[in-house]
Design the sequence.
């Protein structure tokens, strides 16, 4: 993007200030901050393209905002970023609390930045509005990664609905990609519907498990196993090595019972110890193998476009729903109809018909 006239004049005005600081539009706007509370859209977009983390964080905050004015700005930023997005590998990580997701992401993230990758870690946390971001609230646990220049960790967006949180995360992915992050890791807990939402925004979906605990105990639903491209049994260290090996055999056998995936990829089971940093590289190699295979058979791009179609429909559905329920007349009539149903004075279908036609 070209430096606008406004920015050029700002550049002139600030000639006395150390030049390296004012080479990108975002930095210029920072200087203008006294006059302008929010950087312009152009400045934010330029900042993102220049891999400026402050600009990226600000843009994400706009995406997460409920303010209509911010939303409009956010949409424009996303639009500008879209051509530079898409060039990444998106990985979803799920598993019950305590399985070791944060520890695993830190180990994998460190390996990736070590080989020259730029890693962004995001979270979809359906409980975040209650617990104020329980997943990446433990950002401090990822101490090494937090301090890594080539990593960006963003605690989960809070929101009233999973749909809202998921939409914000999808848009945040676009912004991170435009800011040059080539590996996006999205963490979620395997409860509620969050894993389905994450599955629909990533290329590779990884389920972290523990050995020796039944599925029910781990709160894992059958559906998640079906979605997984890999099951990684964590904490395969110390006394747990033996049960972990047994679990590997069992899971591999169980996975064979599922029908072939559209990706033609056979889900793999592997062991690791996130804490001891063992087995992490082979998980990464597995992910690369998946990428290679699905790019060759074109599944990779097919999946991304069907995900985009899914999100289009999902957004329409969400909007229609909220438009309907936010109508004042619907709000008042809905409670009346619910009461009538309770008193057997109407049927759910007649009531729905009535409300929909208001
Ligand atoms: N022994 C062992 N402990 C681990 C391993 N990975 C994580 N932990 C421990 O398990 C606990 C939960 O880990 P955490 O990463 O916060 O789990 P999360 O809730 O899934 O994010 C912490 O005390 C970790 O130190 C591992 O590979 N081996
Ligand atoms: Mg965690």
Sequence:
């Amino acid at each position: 993007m070209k430096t606008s006239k406004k920015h050029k004049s700002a550049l002139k005005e600030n000639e006395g200030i150390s030049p390296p600081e004012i080479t990108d539009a975002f930095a210029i706007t920072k200087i203008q901050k006294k006059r302008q509370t929010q950087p312009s859209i152009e400045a934010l977009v330029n900042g993102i393209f220049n891999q400026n983390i402050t600009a990226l964080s600000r843009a994400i905050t706009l995406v997460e905002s409920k303010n209509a004015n911010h939303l409009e700005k956010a949409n424009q930023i996303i639009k500008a970023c879209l051509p530079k997005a898409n060039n990444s590998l998106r990985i979803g990580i799920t598993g019950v609390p305590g399985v070791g997701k944060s520890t695993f992401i830190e180990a994998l993230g460190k390996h990736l930045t070590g080989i020259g990758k730029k890693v962004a870690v995001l979270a979809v946390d359906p409980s975040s509005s209650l617990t104020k971001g329980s997943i990446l609230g433990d950002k401090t646990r990822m101490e090494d990664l937090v301090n890594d220049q080539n990593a960006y960790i963003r605690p989960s967006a809070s929101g009233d609905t999973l749909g809202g949180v998921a939409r914000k995360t999808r848009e945040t992915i676009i912004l991170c990609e435009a800011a040059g992050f080539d590996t996006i890791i999205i963490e979620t807990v395997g409860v509620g519907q969050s894993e389905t939402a994450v599955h629909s925004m990533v290329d590779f979906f990884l389920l972290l498990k523990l050995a020796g605990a039944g599925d029910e105990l781990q709160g894992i639903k059958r559906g998640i196993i079906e979605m997984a491209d890999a099951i990684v049994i964590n904490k395969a260290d110390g006394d747990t090595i033996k049960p972990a090996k047994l679990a590997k055999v069992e899971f591999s056998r169980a996975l064979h019972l599922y029908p072939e995936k559209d990706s033609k990829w056979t889900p793999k089971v592997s062991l690791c110890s996130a804490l001891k940093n063992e087995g992490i590289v082979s998980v990464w190699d597995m992910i690369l193998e998946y990428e290679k295979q699905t790019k060759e058979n074109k599944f990779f791009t097919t999946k991304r476009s069907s995900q985009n179609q899914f999100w289009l429909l999902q957004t329409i559905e969400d909007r229609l729903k909220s438009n309907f329920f936010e109508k004042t007349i619907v709000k008042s009539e809905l409670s009346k109809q619910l009461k009538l149903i309770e008193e057997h004075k109407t049927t759910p279908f007649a009531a729905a018909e009535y409300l929909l036609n208001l």
Notes: The first strand starts at residue 89 and ends at 95. Residues 101-102, 135, 138 surround magnesium ion (ligand 2) (CB under 6 Å). Confidence is low (pLDDT under 50) at residues 1-22, 128-133. DSSP finds 16 helices and seven strands in the chain.
